[in-house]
Amino acid sequence: MARDKDADRSVRGKQGHQLGPESKDPTRAVVIVPVLTRQPRDDESSRPRLSRSADARHDEAVGLASAIDLNPVHTAVVTVADPRPATLLGSGKVAEFAEIVKERKAELVIVDHPLTPVQQRNLEKELNAKVLDRTGLILEIFGERARTKEGTLQVELAHLNYQKGRLVRSWTHLERQRGGAGFLGGPGETQIESDRRILQDKITKLKHELETVRRTRDLHRAKRKKVPFPVVAIVGYTNAGKSTLFNRLTGAGVLAEDMLFATLDPTLRRVRLPHGTPVILSDTVGFISDLPTHLVAAFRATLEEVVEADLVLHLRDISDPDTAAQAEDVERILGDLGVDAADANRVIEVWNKVDLLDEGNRERLLAESASGKAPPIAISAVTGEGIDALKALIETRLSGELEKMTVTLSPAQLGQVDWLYRNGDVVSRTDNEDGSVTLSLTATHSARQEIENRLHRRSGS
To answer: How far, in Å, CA of 377 to CA of 97, rounded?
Structure first.
């Protein structure tokens, strides 16, 4: 299944945009999506992985290419029954794509599958174009998105680890250093070893810098724990709407676009929930299927915000046909981080983009969710539908159910009135003749305990 996109930038108009200060045309790219008919066994889990539709994989690959300065001029889904160790694809397909690359004047070929260094090098020779596999493409996107020092260091570390096994392919000056007669030897070997040492020195230096960043993050986390504000982390597949929800809940101006990996660096904001509970809300990097291990390792410090969170919101794009497979990918990564996605006390599943569903699908999905032990909560981060219910659920999970109470403040305690209004729902107020004030209110269980402690301390009893 091939799709020509020559002179057709409709995909970029929807999901991508020209990056950088220059106005030059985007790099012309051919996107190949190999679909292996025999999937490798997953040693990490006994259950089989949910299969993704070819169309969904194609659209995601094009979205990844469009997330940076690329123009997909030709895309194709290729069924691979017998993966070739040398090129992954069969010789006939390689020759076919070589003609397409030449005809379309493409400078880059994206292969939406992990490639070995040998496969990557051989494909570049056969196609006469630079080749990036899925891991390399995601690294390029992360390199574009990183804004903070920590994010930049993490991406650079992942990139160097990825390049270590690809020195012969990536560092063009090595081609001139090789020995002849079909074997490697002479000064080439010395040059490769030298370059490997340079890379290793850079990796060691970056690890030291990241360790400093991690210690700083730990100090900040320790300070937050002294003022015990619970942390709520938003996680989900990339483009599920995490940043849009973060902005809706906090009023922050985090970049939120219909683009894969629109945001990369984590963002923290303090939020006060409807009944006064203060929380720290964390927006994290989006997850994706087959997330490169280099990135998982490099971003460990960032992902620790999820591990340390008191509550995790697993946000799903319920309008996506592949939502179940995406949810499984997120759950696997959470499991790798030590977070049990099935723990209903710690993880809330949130179904986003319900405004994009037709009425029939909407009613069916909501009925299915209501039948579960811990039904997901349906929202639209764009329209605001369900946001109040989500806030109430977050507050209930963190601070307990709402409780009714009546308090009488003596004239000496009237300074607490404003605090009570901010941390509870005042139903009625009575100003008594002796100058005291009686308030009837509802508050969370933890807020009630705080109220009682405050009044007890103020009364001196």
So the answer is: 46
- Residue 285: phi and psi, rounded to 5, are -65, 145
Which is nearest to 287 in space by CA: 276, 295, 279? 295
Whats the size of the chain, residue-wise?
461
Pairing of strands 231-236, 130-133: unpaired
**Sign (positive or negative) of CA dihedral 193, 194, 195, 197:** positive
Strands 108-111 and 27-36: what pairing? parallel
At 341, which amino acid appears?
A
Going residue by residue through the chain (461 aa), what tens digit of pLDDT does each one get?
666 544 343 333 333 333 344 446 789 999 999 998 865 554 444 455 666 788 889 999 998 898 887 999 999 999 999 999 999 999 999 999 999 999 999 999 999 999 998 999 999 999 999 999 998 888 888 877 777 777 788 788 888 888 877 764 443 443 444 333 333 334 444 566 777 788 888 888 888 887 887 787 777 667 666 656 888 999 999 889 988 999 899 886 655 555 555 555 667 888 888 877 888 898 877 788 877 666 676 666 567 778 888 899 999 999 998 898 999 989 988 888 888 888 888 999 999 999 998 888 777 777 766 665 567 899 999 999 999 999 989 988 888 777 888 999 888 888 888 888 877 788 899 999 898 999 998 887 777 888 888 877 655 54
Q: What is the DSSP letter of 412?
A: G
List strands edge to edge, sheet with 425-431: 402-409, 437-444, 425-431
**This prediction's pTM:** 0.73
Give the pair of three-digit tokens for residue 356.
């994009």
Q: How far apart are CA 455 and CA 453, in angstroms?
A: 6
Give the residue from 175, 2, 14, 162 showing the smallest Cα distance to 77. 2
Buried b / exposed e over 145-169, threshold 16 CB at 10 Å, is bbeeebbbbbbbbbbbbbbbebbbb
Closest by CA position to 395, among listed 268, 234, 278: 278
**What is the b/e burial string over 218-238, where b = at least 16 CB atoms within 10 angstroms of the residue's CB?**
eeeeeebeeeebbbbbbbbbb
- CA separation (Å) from 72 to 28, 61, 109, 428? 6, 10, 9, 63
Which residues, listed in sequence order, are joined to residue 347 by a DSSP beta bridge? 312
